[in-house]
Design a protein that fits this description.
By secondary structure, this protein is of the alpha/beta class. The protein is about 40% helix and about 20% strand. An 8-stranded parallel β-barrel has the order 3-4-5-6-7-8-9-10, surrounded by 6 helices. Strands 1-2 form a two-stranded antiparallel sheet. Helix 2 packs across helix 3 and helix 6 runs parallel beside helix 7. It is globular and about 55 Å long. The termini are far apart.
Amino acid sequence: MKNIYTWTAQPAKRTLTVADLKLAKGKKKFTQVTANTIDEASAAEKAGFDMMICQAKNVLKVREGSKHLFLTASLILNEYVTKEDVLRGAFKSLENGADAVMTPRSMEVVEMLTREDIPVMGHLGLLPQTAEKYTVQGKTKESAIQLIEDAKIIVESGVFTMVLEMVTSQVAKIITEKSSVPTIGIGSGKDCDGQVLVVHDMLGLFEKIKPKFAKRYLSLSEEIRNAVKSY
């Protein structure tokens, strides 16, 4: 457990810091899970996850559930539209207890944040919010080269780590080997420096949405249905 000061200059303890993540590149495999409620955050900390990621609007409640896990706040597209929205949202998230932010916006926006010394988790590959079709990225030679080049640009923008979402395992491996920052994979193979999973996929909460790469550890939707039936 590391002693830190939060962005509001309050003493706190964290299991990881940005510096820890960067120094552990290639030496440790990290685990990350989504958490947007007090219970999900509490479960993640008790289970021993390294990191959590939540929607920026949920930082306060997630921090109530977990005081110590490294937390990234996701600045989702429809809630943070302009550059000013993104910047204000990032500072508010850090003020509320997040350790970093993630945004699916352009490199210009990412660089704006990193110039303000805001820790940013980059994102490369599929963007579920805007994708016309959920397909693995980097299957063709041209798209693979583009992803590798984009990864280099993302690192140069100042991110401390980046998520690779639904990128072919071959491309993800190349990016991971070439990148100076840790990569966190979701549906991108085993060679990334860490793995992230959406808690709803893990729990089987949505029956109609089942990513091929997501292993289910529980069929919560079925449990809920049975409980309602029993009632």
